[in-house]
Fold this sequence. Notes:
alpha/beta; D-Maltodextrin-Binding Protein, domain 2; ModA/WtpA; Substrate-binding domain-containing protein; nine-stranded mixed beta sheet
Amino acid sequence: MLVAPGARDANARDEGNKARIKVLCSIALQSAMDDLIPEFERSSGHKVTIDYANAGPVADRVQRGEAADVVISTVSLVDRLQAQGKVMAGALVVIARVGVGVFVRRGASKPDLSSAEAFKRSVLAARSIAYPDPAGGGASGIYMASLIARLGIAAEIAPRTKLAASAEALFAGVASGEVDLGFNQISEILAQPSIELAGPLPADIQNYTQFTPGIVAGSSQAEAGRALIRLLSSPAAQTVLKAKGFD
């Protein structure tokens, strides 16, 4: 059982000191948070409301002043929020890192991902590919658009490229067979039973997204938020995150 460091102290046991905290979190972490948040609630007595969105929109909501206690997004975005005074000052702790993966319909043949050149050939051979629309602010969609441009194949595959407005649409397109190859963060791929991870991007073209939590400036539940961050940083939580596809 996971136990947040310090979560079982006298204050946490005192009903009057139990908090309700709101968390804004990158959707890439949802599969792990589905396990970690209930354990935090059990061990601390605090209650959590958590909203998920792509990393960019999560940070934008904090930047616009939405009431919240903890934000979990990419290191660069939380660092920017901290510089703007939207997140409390302090050292940022990386709780998870995840790479981009390639996925196919369950049972379908898997592409050759042994090298950057093999990856390029596999993409060019596909009838269609899909990844999150970069306009949505998701890290994997932004990276895939830049990678395909860097490989010099953007114009050639543009007619066969689908930009998904949501994760649901992305996974459904591949699961139905409409799309041959999909690309997204590995943690999100592993959480989907209708599709199958073909493998991570080759090492020389892989991109890792690092996630960090921050206490939102003005939060009245900063201590409860820090207790959550301690749990997310704990060795037990890291074991859960690893099982969900994070480094």
